[in-house]
Batch of 2 targets.
Target 1
Amino acid sequence: MQCGKCGQPAVLVLQHGNLCKKHFLNYFEDKVFKTINRYHLIGRAENLCVATSGGKDSLTVLHLTQKYLKKYKLKATLFALAIDEGIADYREKTLSDLQEFCKKNKVKLKIVSFKDEFGLELNQAFPKFKTNTNKKPCNVCGVWRRYLLNKYAKKFGAKLIITGHNLDDEAQVILMNIFKANTKLAGRLGPISGTGEQEGFIQRVKPLYFCTEKEVRLYAYLKGFKVHFAECPYSQQGYRHHIQAMLNDFENQYAGTKQGIINSFLELLPQLKQAEPTAQIKVCKRCQELANQDVCNACKLKEAIIHG
Ligand code: SF4
């Protein structure tokens, strides 16, 4: 296989042609920068928080955000924020990769942990939940991660959170919402999450929105990022895992399926945003963070563990 642009050996086969290493890297970076420009994901002179884990997606988005700021001579400051859930034999490895990456690339890194915030790691919290509720590790992890990300991005002065969600992640969550009849929440998805107008809620943006998981993996590999490619040991218990397997199977048989889901969704997004219910945002009585009810979900989970 040869690159359709220069005849060198190809590293990736795309629907519209093959690409060598150099042309793939150009194609990928161009796609990410076009997404940022098209959706105005990064404004001027902001303090940016990049949500990081040390995995391929977060290292890629961190690297490309730095590159974007440099390319467009933007004066925004940037820091990486990582959440240590306390997942044995997994998170410590990705955090070690992240620390190395941040040191090498002179990125300020802040790490906050479940243990410090909620008094116990996910490894300790999950067994208690199993007996009390039918919650899976990802249910607990997702609520606490989102909570800490918003809380600490705000605390460290960020005006925007940049995440490494890729096209596969987004196609999965669109289907999950449909399968679980959560269509009212669908308006919150897309390259920009949230309105950015709610005080206390930091808007999230996704520069890798149109990059497939395979492309991000290849980019991280070709750039030589030190990445621990193993999956979280809990991931197979999650609902998303089954959707992911199904979608990958479909994609193998019908190339372009994931892109088709994203395209259809983006066409519907303006209507979905209009139909989105205006949630009454309150302040949690326990922690004073944003909540839909008197007590936020993160505090409810914590209390459920402590008090059984
Ligand atoms: Fe957390 Fe689930 Fe992701 Fe593991 S797979 S990091 S438990 S959300």
Target 2
Amino acid sequence: MAEITKKPIKITETILRDAHQSLIATRMTTEQMLPIIDKMDKVGYHSVECWGGATFDASLRFLKEDPWERLRKLRDGFKNTKLQMLFRGQNILGYRHYADDVVAYFVQKSIANGIDIIRIFDCLNDIRNLECAVNAAKAEKGHAQIALSYTLGDAYTLEYWKDIAKKIEDMGADSICIKDMAGLLVPYKATELIGALKDSVDIPIQLHTHYTSGVASMTYLKAVEAGVDVIDTAMSPFAMGTSQPATEVMVETFKGTEYDTGFDQNLLAEIADYFRPMRDEALKSGLLNPKVMGVDIKTLLYQVPGGMLSNMVSQLSEMHAEDKYYDVLKEIPEVRKDLGEPPLVTPSSQIVGTQAVLNVIAGERYKTPTKECKAVLSGEYGQTVKPFNAEVQKKVIGDAEPITCRPADLIEPELAKIEKEMAEWKQQDEDVLSYALFPQVAKEFFAYRKAQQDKVDLTKADTENGAYPA
Ligand code: CO
């Protein structure tokens, strides 16, 4: 019998980032993560995605945690596993374009604090918006992965994907990820897409998808058979629904085949046992809404990523307009077309989603355009695959001249100015970056941190003065 050539499929575990971002609004705390990372470190993951995306904002805003401190603690615990983050190109982790000096400094500090692999994407797939972050990652000897936001539409042919993949390889990226945030990639299309990409480039290809439309694990199966190198999965308690396929299920699927991961299912079971009570608690408190756990086949029709769905539900319920859910779902593809048919991923997903909500609620399209919608139509986010709807553009930006260059070319260096602005709060270099990304939220966090420290100092002084028994 012929020996089978082993080509173990590599796995990126997402439970510390995308999984809880997708299912429980990014509310997992560092304290909840730390007790299990010793076991996670023994699994043999290709990498653990644990930082970036919404975790940075959520840490500062809701959890009152320093995201940099989280990263350092995770780095300390993961001795053998590569740590991965998600990075929105020129937006970093925020919602506007930053100057190149801020982008480069953020990359430098991320790597210095423990990140190995930076997954960089742009919501419009405008690769000019990735150059600065990729160059910075290379300069710091990090692994620069470029993620292409997967989407459907007339412009998104196999030729489009092959062509852009080639450009990415030429840019010097270490690997490519197809980032299917909405779960739009169906199994046999994955065969075609991964096959085409493998033909086009030599660097490794990773696939990232969400379970939203119910096809994700089949899509992985076909992608693996077509030669994909790495897949993203989440431990079962925070898998499926708007999150990723379950790690244990994929591991078992490939057991005994040429793609066998070699992972220990008993170890995985112990890790799952650790996270399961967290899931139960989230279900009980309502943080995990059972609505996002089912199969939503409408995502294939409306191309709405998981996170966007849950945002929309809460936006509508705040306005007591839950009955407009399906009207908004119908408006989303219309807004998307008006804005040049971009992929729907942060922040384009929020921009399109919020504008669709406003268009429906106002009863007149673009009566109340958001600042971000105006920015897109002014070219401030970069180039879309298709042209904008000229009529809509005129209504929203009037006679203003849209820009066509790489947007960051118009932004002066801003790091020094930002540092000066926040000097009174600075306790570590990284604070400048927290402030650069979320000025208001960071300031509130810094004030909170200061108050905590003062409290500790007071207690210490009292203890030293013998006010408390030792
Ligand atoms: Co994702």
